[in-house]
Amino acid sequence: MDVIDGGYLRKLREEKGFSLRTFAQKIYVSKSTAQRWEQSHVPADEENIENIAAALDMTVDELIHGSKNYAESGVEESMPDVAEIEKSVKASFGLKGMRTAFLIAGVAIICILVLMPFLFV
């Protein structure tokens, strides 16, 4: 059986609006396994490929042929925009964690600005 390109898998997952954790639960693997697959290739395990196809509402043939076309097209990764990065940070740390990160960054900037005149005396 053929392997599935990891970039194609991530593209399909994001199109469906699944977080990595939700997607991993749907295909009965750990989050780290799903993440590793998205960074390379899904192993040619029939059960995993069937679970992935079912979770994405596709047939196994559609999944395999789409992956081949994706790999042959040489699709390049684009730089994520600010909204995607913010969404990723919110998903990883939650809103409270994001506020804390901005607070720490703000305090660091203020400290640098206050101490700057004393550094060049």
Question: Can you put this structure into words, describing what you see?
Answer:
The chain is mainly α and 121 residues long. It has two domains: 4-73, Orthogonal Bundle (434 Repressor (Amino-terminal Domain)); 80-121. Helices cover 74% and strands 3% of the residues. The protein has six helices and two strands, in the order βαααβααα. It has helices at 6-16, 20-26, 31-39, 46-55, 60-73, 82-119; strands at residues 4-5, 41-42. It has a two-stranded antiparallel ribbon. The longest helix is centred in the last third of the chain and has 38 residues, at 82-119. The protein is elongated. It starts with a strand and ends with a helix.
